[in-house]
Amino acid sequence: MSTAADSLTDHHHHGPAKGIRRWLFTTNHKDIGTMYLVLSLSSLLIGGLMAFVIRMELFEPGLQFVDPNFFNQMTTMHGLIMVFGAVMPAFVGLANWMVPLMVGAPDMALPRINNWSFWLLPFAFTMLISTLFMEGGAPNFGWTFYAPLSTDYAPPSTTFFIFSVHLMGVSSIMGAVNVIATIVNMRAPGMTYMKMPLFVWTWLITAFLLILVMPVLAGAVTMLLMDRHFGTSFFNAAGGGDPVMFQHIFWFFGHPEVYIMILPAFGIVSHIVPTFARKPLFGYTSMVYATASIAILSFVVWAHHMFTVGLPLVGELFFMFATMLIAVPTGVKVFNWVATMFRGSMTFETPMLFALAFIILFTIGGFSGLMLAIAPADFQYHDTYFVVAHFHYVLVPGAVFSIFAAVYFWLPKWSGRMYSETLGKWHFWLSVIGVNLTFFPMHFSGLAGMPRRIPDYALQFADFNMISSVGAFVFGFSQLLLIWVVVRCVRGKGEPATEQVWEQAEGLEWTIPSPAPYHTFEEAPKVS
Amino acid sequence: MPAMWRVLTGCLLLLMAGPGFAELQWNMPEGVTEVSRDVHQLHMVIFYICVAIGVVVFSVMIWSIVHHRKSKGAKAAHFHENTTVEIIWTAIPFLILIGMAIPATSTLKAMYDTSESDIDIQVTGYQWKWRYQYLDEGVDFFSNLSTSWDSIENKTEKGEHYLLEVDNPVVVPIKKKIRFLFTANDVIHSWWVPDLAIKKDAIPGFINEAWTVIDTPGIYRGQCTELCGKNHGYMPVVLYAVAQDTYDKWVASQLKAQEEAKSIKEMSYEELYALGEQVYTNNCASCHMPTGTGMPGVFPALHGSDYITNKDPTDQINIILKGKPGTAMAAFGDQLSLSEIAAVATYERNAWGDQKEQSVTPAQVHTIKTQAALSN
Fold first, then answer.
1. Does the pLDDT at position A1 exceed 50?
2. Measured by CB atoms within 10 angstroms of the end CB, which terminus of chain B is less buried, N or C?
3. Beta strands, E only, chain B
């Protein structure tokens, strides 16, 4: 394994090109991974700014800052940018950086497709954001774009939204193909499937989910385009179509999509917890099977997003039972992480703190998810702030915290510098306080009867909303610390990192120097 | 770990939100029907199960975090699998889930039994109001938000039922089985009254059903819960549950008022303008704006448009009557009375100076409406 690092010295002439050409034409998985992560961080800031507008408006009852139509544009764009611009590219960026290093491959299997799948995204998002400045404003129908609100009743800019979703879909599919090709073909000799690191496993499964559902999303937006411009009536009851069919198609994509945003997070946490507990991961095999079960189940639960559309009784029952089943493999994962910590020898560096917060807060999101699965109770929860609380718990202290954990965990490997532990801890504590202050009260306002996606609300919801807004401001501004931490490392401040970085870190990625050289594993390492 | 303390205090707060603290409004209401109480109970049971699981799992985790830390000299064990344990913690959740599914299934079955109703009410969602049609009684009316825009824009004080008040509430008798039939005229809406545990989507072209039997008289409030465009936050539901004789009297008075509204009245310009302003505010201002300037690219302006600069009001009356298919412009022919259509047409012509004191009369509207019916 150690020979890989030594052989690198001969290859300095393969270093990166200079200036902008390096980034435009690069086929290097590390450069592309970095670009994905930078794009993700920019999206996080832009989407965060929109959340800021939303929380400002909801700070008090009444209309203070924006009109209801602009408010709807903000909720729509916030959702789209966070899902497609922040969370998904972050995981693709991490996969680009880490999958080749973890399987001992010199690069991704399809480096040019890799370049293209990244470079589609800046254009897709520029186009999406440009709709804010068009006549009639940006899409205002929610990130779920239910017909007919997104067809006959939508602003003209919707067509640009459709095209940008097409581009994102093309990018995601190519990215997923690349990940699968790399994992299947380029593993180091001796690395059998059941020896693969869990991040690689979860990404392999995620990539299959992406390939299976992104075309469904593309189909949905294409039908939308046809209904808007070419006189078809896929989703128009007056023309013989069915608006509920839109929801079936959307959520057939949408439910696997939420697992696309959480499975890689499971992988990350399964690396960090053993590292800082100094004890091997408990139940590796069951982790792999649980991930696969969750992925398979994700295809047969979509209509739990639609319990109130008037499904027949058997339909409700089927989707209720199937959804409840997901709690079993998810529970197994949480139990495995806890068992990994049990009788370990733990330290609490920033990645571990974020991973621990992930386990607790994601589990709380899982509990509310289980409550939402119970159809009769869901009639009361559906489309209220209880749902907003639920999915933000699984996505922010869930997916986003896992990304933060990953950044702190691997930043020394990427930059060659240890980040400032003090700043990291500040970032963690402010984030964890902010996130709970923002989203915990939403459970209460939802149960008390506050619908989601409203710019103004009845007076009994005022206290909870004010708390949420204050929490959101704390959480939002504390992300500036993350930028500071990353910029410090990139600029070469901080202690130089060792090869292994963390005392008990295991895996091929910790056998190469820090920072990781531009080319790694040109000769495949051997895994015993 | 403060994170955990916060979670625990949060859970404790939720626990207190049971029966004793219900009026503080941070838990699901128990409601006023048998079904709503079943749903509430189901909610509390699942919640307590989740809390119990959470307490066990997080306790082990906290125990490890406190005791098994390197700074306390903990030495890591090396175990990394145990088939028995893994089978146990797969099987136990599965059994708990079965325990949850049984009561959920029976409640759901009860909620789906819409047979043998005493009163049938069709509820139609419009952007952004509800229409209630009592199928046997013949009562038919629209229900609009009655909170003033001034209080929404913080120019006046907000009342107790801010955003949860309407001009015409839906009225039902207690202790009768009421069946609601939901549909929509434009986009998807969703009708929700928490105290009845009814939330059902109103979908254009489709009919959904739900039912209720209310035990206690009272005023029950809810809101539209499916994003339905700009004023989604401003289409509340207010339901009065009253004794049977009060209900009967209400039905009689509604029918009388509906009969009166059908007649062709003689109205002065001032009467038309005043009524028109009211109708415009309730039905038109949210898109075309109080200034008649619309929203560029989304909703067209009325001020300066051909419809009202033309001396002949035929086109204007026609579009109000029939709407513009494929756009947000609804057909108001069945929504508004002849006087109301005449009044709003009058108001639009004069409010922004496109015409000078030009009246459109209910008789004119009547003529055009009859012609339109013939030409179809």
1. no
2. C
3. 119-126, 129-134, 140-143, 170-173, 178-184, 189-193, 198-202, 208-212, 218-224, 236-242
